[in-house]
Every structure is written in structure tokens, then in C-alpha cells.
Design a protein that fits this description.
The protein is α+β, with helices and mostly antiparallel strands. It is built from 10 helices and 16 strands. The strands form 6 sheets. It has a 5-stranded antiparallel beta sheet. The protein has a 3-stranded antiparallel beta sheet with strand order 14-13-15, with no helix packed on it. β10 (311-317) and β11 form a beta hairpin.
């Protein structure tokens, strides 16, 4: 006889440990996090191989852990899973706040801020779940149907959120990393095309030989994709065919820039002259600034001084750092001379997080509305590259993605340098 208030317990074979239900739910969420990491790994590899490789390793570890903990749950697996996801979550937070985790974090490699946030939330829940299972020593049992219902509900909600995250992935973001000071800083969002509808066929046919390893000068591609946060310094499209004088001036600028900067193929020589990195070292492309030369520009000195360019750009390759460009930077609101007409165009960046010394420590965008402490988002002064490696678009190309710059750097002879 059952007395009033007495708990009716189901037979032992009709129940399962509550811990097993929680394990299944946690495993489902980690599988979703692994899928997100698999989805972005290829894009990350294109931008920075080390970050892409680490993302792929994390994805596999998460997937294998989820399978293992479902097949044979153990205290060791739970501790390992909690630690793994805690480390991954800490890396995400570090990247979010400083822009740097494994080398340079290539932000916006295919996911929106929602996708990043979902992945972090799933990992945080997994860490909490593993910790609870390890420390609580759960012995409570629940009806067997909970082993189906709870994971099914978790899987359904997670699947909806996961599909939403993948569906709203940032289009075109893989092309958004550039070789300018924004390079690798995670310019987030959709690339924007630079349209030149009035450009003549004769302008597009321009091909001017130079002495630079970068090859021939050509007109900027009218369909060139620029990263979000990057735009031309002038709002008016530059479509006029360069005159013969402007064409000669463009060649002179490239040839002289190469001749005067050739000594800086040695990274040690550049450092000895006063150039210092203003973007994180070890990234695929690193920008160096000479504060003394830039101060001279700020006080009225020549902007296009080929003997003392304000900035030098290096690409890190398997053979070491390679000088890939001189970059001329004008003062805020200062002159932007175009000796080559539309062959020599200036651009700015609007999404970078800059320190007082023009150091780039991150970028604002979807999921990153604010800059790290000690920096602020402001429009950069106008800048122009003269390339020394054969990137698409030639030596006066407006910009180029990091992978193209590194690939071009691997094609030229260079002295042995360490990592920039």
C-alpha cells in the first residue's frame, strides 16, 4: 500500500542517471561549436595559416571529445573537455579584446558577430556543464524518456541557432583582409567595389614597364574589391586617362621608390634607421613606421619623399621577412599629391583602432563595436602604396589582400631576415 505523501519511484530499469542526460546535451552543443569552427577554418587558413590550423585542430578535438564522452563518459573526459573549451573560450575573449590570440586574428572570416557569440556561448555552457558533472557527483536518476527528450530539445534549439549563424555569415569577408595598415586586423563586413564607370578603354590598356620587381604599372581595376572600412581618399571616382607626363611621373615614382628603399630589404637596416612595427609582429603582413620621418611630414615636409618613406611594409614568408612596399602617409587633412594622376590614388581606413602613435591594435565591426583600451576608432590619414613585389594590379595598386602579398613576396629574391 502506498501511503499519502510517499514518493512513487519508477523501477530501476526505467530510469537513467541525470548526469548522462546532461552529458548528451553538452556533447550536442560542442558538436555545434565544432561545426562553426570547421566552417571558418578554411577562410582563416587563406588569411593566416597558423590561426586557420589552430581553428581546425580545435574543431577536431571538440568533435572527437563529443563522440568519446557520449560513448564512454568518464571523469577524465569531463575534466579534459572542460579545460579544452575553457582554453578555446579564453582565446576568443583575448582575440575580442586585444585583436591578437594566435598571431594575428583574422576577424570576420565568414561569420557574423552572432555566429561568434553563439560559439562562445555553447563553449561556456559546456565548461559549466563539465564542471557541474565533475564536482556535483550527481546520483539523481530520472525517467528514461528524459534521455531522449532533453537531448532532442537541446539538439533542436541548437540546430536552429546554428543554421541561423551560418546563414547570416558575412558575405565576401574572406577578401576583406588587406595589405594596408588594416591588414589582418580583422576588417569586418562586406567588401565594397570601387566603381569607375567612366574609365576609357585606352586607360585600361596602360602598361608601363618599371625597374621594380613589382613589374608593370597598370590602371586600378574598376571592379577592385576593397575591405569594409576602407575607401578612397577622394569621394570622386578617378577615371581620367593619365597624360603622357603623368605616366612618366608614375614610372619615376615607382623606380625611385624602389631604388631608395632597396637598402631596406634588410629588416635590420630598417630598424637601425628608426622604423618600428605599428601592426602586430609575426602577422602575414607587418607595417613599420619611422616616427621621425612622419613627424617631418606633419611639420610640412615632403609627403612623397622617396628617400625617407614614412612607412615600410614587410611580408613574413618561409624564408623570412620580405620588403613588399613603401607606403607614403600624409598628415590628417594634408596634401595628397597624384603625380601619376589616376595611377597614383590615395585611400583611408575608417574602422581601425589606433593608438596615439598610429599603432593598429584592432578594428571595429560586427560583434566588435568598441576598440581595446588605450586606442580609439578614427579615420586614418590618407596613404598610398608603392609595391615592390608582383601583386595583381602592379606597383601602384591601391591595395591587396594579405595572402596575395605573401604569395608575391615569395616570388622575389630577398636577403635572409628574421620574422618581421
Amino acid at each position: 500500500m502506498t501511503h499519502v505523501g510517499e514518493e512513487i519511484r519508477p523501477p530501476e530499469d526505467e530510469t537513467v542517471p541525470l548526469g548522462r542526460v546532461v552529458v548528451y546535451c553538452v556533447a550536442i552543443m560542442i558538436i555545434a561549436a565544432a561545426i562553426i569552427h570547421f566552417a571558418v577554418a578554411a577562410k582563416y587558413v587563406e588569411q593566416y595559416w597558423l590561426f586557420g590550423a589552430s581553428t581546425l585542430v580545435v574543431a577536431w578535438l571538440q568533435a572527437l571529445w563529443a563522440i568519446a564522452v557520449i560513448a564512454r563518459p568518464s571523469r577524465a573526459l569531463l575534466v579534459g573537455g572542460g579545460c579544452l573549451n575553457a582554453v578555446v573560450l579564453a582565446g576568443y575573449i583575448l582575440t575580442l579584446t586585444t585583436g591578437d590570440a594566435v598571431g594575428r586574428a583574422p576577424n570576420a572570416a565568414g561569420l557574423s558577430g552572432f555566429g561568434d557569440g553563439l560559439c562562445a556561448a555553447l563553449e561556456a555552457i559546456a565548461v559549466a556543464g563539465c564542471a557541474w558533472l565533475v564536482m556535483a557527483k550527481v546520483r539523481h536518476r530520472v525517467r528514461r524518456r528524459r534521455l531522449i527528450m532533453a537531448p532532442a530539445a537541446t539538439g533542436g534549439v541548437t540546430a536552429v541557432l546554428l543554421s541561423t549563424a551560418l546563414a547570416v555569415a558575412s558575405p565576401g569577408s574572406a577578401a576583406s583582409t588587406t595589405g594596408s595598415p588594416a591588414a589582418g586586423t580583422g576588417s569586418a563586413g562586406t567588401g565594397s567595389a570601387m566603381h569607375m564607370p567612366g574609365m576609357s578603354a585606352s586607360a585600361m590598356a596602360i602598361k608601363l614597364p618599371t625597374t621594380s620587381p613589382a613589374g608593370d604599372i597598370t590602371m586600378p581595376d574598376p571592379n577592385m574589391q576593397m575591405a569594409a572600412g576602407m575607401k578612397m581618399a577622394s569621394s570622386a571616382p578617378c577615371v581620367a586617362t593619365p597624360t603622357a607626363q603623368q605616366q612618366r611621373a608614375a614610372v619615376t615614382l615607382v623606380d625611385t621608390s624602389w631604388k631608395d628603399s632597396e637598402k631596406y630589404q634588410s629588416l635590420a637596416a630598417a630598424k637601425a634607421t628608426g622604423y618600428r612595427p605599428i601592426t602586430p609582429t609575426g602577422a602575414p603582413v607587418v607595417h613599420y613606421l619611422n616616427p621621425s620621418y612622419y613627424r617631418a611630414t606633419l611639420t610640412g615636409g615632403s609627403v612623397l619623399d622617396t628617400t625617407d618613406p614614412q612607412s615600410l611594409v614587410y611580408a613574413n614568408t618561409p624564408k623570412g621577412a620580405v620588403l613588399v612596399a613603401a607606403m607614403y602617409i600624409t598628415s590628417p587633412g594634408g596634401p595628397t599629391p597624384q603625380p601619376g594622376g589616376c595611377l597614383t590614388q590615395w585611400h583611408v581606413h575608417t574602422n581601425l583602432c589606433l593608438t596615439s602613435g598610429l599603432g593598429v591594435v584592432g578594428a571595429v565591426g560586427p560583434g566588435r563595436p568598441t576598440c581595446p583600451a588605450g586606442s580609439e576608432n578614427r579615420v586614418t590619414p590618407p596613404m598610398i602604396h608603392v609595391w615592390f613585389v608582383p601583386i595583381p594590379g602592379g606597383p601602384t595598386a591601391v591595395d591587396a589582400p594579405d595572402p596575395q602579398v605573401v604569395q608575391a613576396a615569395e616570388q622575389v629574391a630577398a636577403p635572409r631576415n628574421g620574422t618581421a
